[in-house]
Design brief:
The protein is about 65% helix and about 10% strand. It is built from 12 helices and 6 strands. Helix 1 packs antiparallel against helix 2, helix 1 runs parallel beside helix 7 and helix 3 runs parallel beside helix 5. The structure holds 3'-deoxy-guanosine-5'-triphosphate (GH3) and magnesium ion (2 copies).
Length: about 400
Amino acid sequence: MKTGLFISLFNPAIALVIACAFFVLWRYQRQRPYLAVLALGHAASAVGFLLQYFTLPIGLPVSRLFSVICFNAAMLCISGAMVASCRRKVPYAAIAVMGAAGLAGFCWFMFIVPNLSARLLAINFAFGGVSLVVAAELRAVPDKGPLEKILFALSLMASLNFLVRPILIISLYGAYTSYEGFYDSLYWTTAVLAHAVVSLLVAFTMLAAAALDMMRDLRVETNTDPLSGLLNRRGFERAASEALSRQAAQNLPAALVIADLDHFKVVNDRFGHAIGDRVIVAFAELLRQAAAGNGIAGRLGGEEFAVLLTASDLPAARLFAEGARLSLSHASIRDVPDGLKATASFGVAARSGADNLSELLHRADSALYNAKRGGRNCVRLSYQRQPEQPSSGDNAIAASRSLAG
Ligand code: GH3
Ligand code: MG
Ligand code: MG
């Protein structure tokens, strides 16, 4: 077997394995269509390479034309997927225009004025242009992570490969006039090797990007309550603890509001669980909107919610809770019978000294208990004396007591 043939089979084999890997990934991750596009792109690339070597019965020129069409499709798919994976709009028009120009050049120098070197330059320049468009798109990605930076560098590398390598080789070793010996030439050997390296690097990076994407989604899923879309207890505790530490480090206030829907068991018993769910969703939405920009809202479980208000002291948090209480008690919830008037009770506690989240939760919970005892549909506060300034040998002890507000 000639070295050229061996090296040529290298690329379709790699491309097919990568295509299978992306296809299998996509079967499990149908919400990520770019994985299917990558599979398609690599499959097209494999066929393109095979058609360079194995001529169809329809003749060499048409076989090569099909090969170049496959390369174009591969370029369109892989470039589009690279851009889409970075959540950018794919510049289909620019990619299609360059691909079409390359194809037109190829056809001209294949069927009208046959010239192998000119064909190579036409296709390479078109692909170099597409790589530059991709590089420009990836450069514009805000807050690039390491993978986006790698993809950007790879698209620049690809454009150098397409634009500089052919010119360099043709100017150093002269133009190619026929396919005779072409597949053993320096041009073809470097083209195949460069393609193998770039496509493997791009595929590994895209696989890593897909894996990271999936991990990100899993993390969001494990921290999110599926019914309300708010953070669940675990997500809330994680986010609120971090926010509390940040506030404490900057000596800024923070307050916690806990809310519990009143007589919710009765609501379920009288109107049904589905209606109960609608009330939960509506109350969650109300809290999400109220907390937007100045707090973190979560569903702690059942019909109990919490909002950590950053940069709010006790009076501000009380106002927040009163606002939420009034909004719920006056809300008309869609698809919920008029006879159902949902209300909630609230407990509020402000961070004092170096309170951690569990201390704050505990105090807000006591205040909520007082709100329930005080007749429900009301707000109660937990008062805590500010810790005294520590003096030598003194331990500042924060005395806490929950009061009916
Ligand atoms: P209180 O005013 O003292 O809070 O009374 P309550 O009935 O709201 O409190 P209790 O703890 O006795 O009952 C809570 C009810 O919340 C019982 C449970 O069926 C209901 N609940 C918990 N999670 C869900 C949910 O996801 N959907 C619906 N529809 N109901 C839920
Ligand atoms: Mg309740
Ligand atoms: Mg409860």
